[in-house]
Amino acid sequence: MTRDIRFTLVGLGNIGRNLLDILVHRQEAIARDYGLRFVLVGAADSSGAALDPAGLDMAAIRDHKLVRRGVATLPGVGRAGMSALEMVRAVTADVLVEAAPTNLQSGQPGLDCVRAALDAGHHVVMADKGPLVLAFDDLMAQARAAERRLAFSGTVAGGLPTVNIGVRDLAGSGVERVEGIFNGTTNYILTRMEAEGLSYAEALQGAQAAGIAEADPTLDVDGWDAANKLIIIANSVLRRPTTLEDVTVEGIRALTLDDLAAARAGGKVIKLLALAKRMGDDYALSVRPTALPKDHPMARTGMWDMGVVYHTDYMGVISAVIEAEGPVATSAAVLRDMINLYAAS
Amino acid sequence: MTRDIRFTLVGLGNIGRNLLDILVHRQEAIARDYGLRFVLVGAADSSGAALDPAGLDMAAIRDHKLVRRGVATLPGVGRAGMSALEMVRAVTADVLVEAAPTNLQSGQPGLDCVRAALDAGHHVVMADKGPLVLAFDDLMAQARAAERRLAFSGTVAGGLPTVNIGVRDLAGSGVERVEGIFNGTTNYILTRMEAEGLSYAEALQGAQAAGIAEADPTLDVDGWDAANKLIIIANSVLRRPTTLEDVTVEGIRALTLDDLAAARAGGKVIKLLALAKRMGDDYALSVRPTALPKDHPMARTGMWDMGVVYHTDYMGVISAVIEAEGPVATSAAVLRDMINLYAAS
Fold it and tell me: By C-alpha distance, which of B287, B288, B286, B321 is closest to B303?
């Protein structure tokens, strides 16, 4: 006997599309293991929206997006020009999955969608970092007031349960230090420079060819993406209201093979490290290229890896690493959040 | 404004005593961060029990146990000869913390205490493995029927959130393979043999001197402890009803420095690996000395480490390692379970 959970989906890029693909393949297992059946009742992309209270065809939408067609063109259910916000407001649902492209200036359209969803009594699961970076405390307060959950485990290192380990598994202990490799693109670049002697430019080209760096890779290589993830961790795990102003950021553009060789001569490896270091009652937050001892858990991460190390007072040092080629693991993280809204564990 | 959570504690060895110590030090932080105040209303050890509905003095009990005195000798509150089960039945509480010594033949006294607590409407947090190894499905069914939670994250690799990652963070994805270093004693021994060239006997002596191996180390060195942890993982993460009969077990007693050298010559490291490997619809379960490639995440674990690797279909490969010298991290795991019964996350 399964319980139907109606969800809306904003954003049908890789994350949204892969989420639908996983759901199509795993529907039976999810029903068997959790007694849940996720029903897509509204979806929005740049073309407009599609709505069906009886449930949209998730496989059809996935296939539509694979050939880059908008959901507004779906027969019967499509609504050309309808905005994501309008879709969220038009639909009765239990959960909003917010996977709109991250906008770090305004947080839109995700931010308005999240607020509207909470206002309408929907839980929210986020892959979009913008609203969290810009308005973490407001959103959490709104969720609490609405007695709804706002989950975002996929926003910091994709499938790696960075947020979940920090928030739930360290509960009761004090966190002294957090070290993270939170940006896959720069770890790919630095790992290939180190292991294969590629120049920065060559390794960046490789990342672009592999589809993990944009034509404009600024967000990744200048450290902003890693900083945003550190901001989310500082707000959630460290309970420290944090914005970008609180983080010292330095990217990897200026790194040369000579820099890496000098580090290697000292038994070290250079990684773009996100760091929260306890300073009295507060934490110093930074993202910068850092020479780590070569047996440091983060020094050993490979070209497809991201990771985190939590140094605690009573719980020792806990490190976690994910090896995942491509973006599917982030969609799997969104799915775990959806399930955990309802699963008794 | 805090909410009082009354708890009972069975077992005042290292785990129980350190739990009280952490609570004494972290009471203020827990009240501030979670709005919770844990009040100890009953405690039992081999001397008998102590009861006080207004709350026992946790610091005093901790100090009592540090000098190996029984709680039954505490003035006013002590009850000589009262059993743990009698204490659980006599006390009104919200949570039982079951940290009795693990008994793998009968599961007692823990098993009866867990059943009595659930019967009386208490949640249960366990550090004791015996009842879970012997009666996992029964206990989970009883908890579900009682609409109460049974948490046990401290039972598999102490502070490392092995169970939590497996059950909650992989939700929705399929687990193909689990590899674990679940026993600290044998990892200490094998790491020192490998790194320092100590013989098995010398390394075992070191473990005993360090307080992490008993005078009779059979449970650890013959692989039974690792097997019990694998049983708990198979039941909870893999949802596969499992008993010791399902696990092929081989310990480390017969390993020599020659074995380690032969592995090293092939670029490998020998570790006592707990393994769940998918075989069709089922899993093959084993604990045995295994030669791992030296860059395998488990090959790199150090003398104070334990770890796990989850290989999934959609969520990549997630590995986690804890470095913790001594038993305190297990008590921290019990505390996180206590908090997570109540914390909105």
Answer: B321
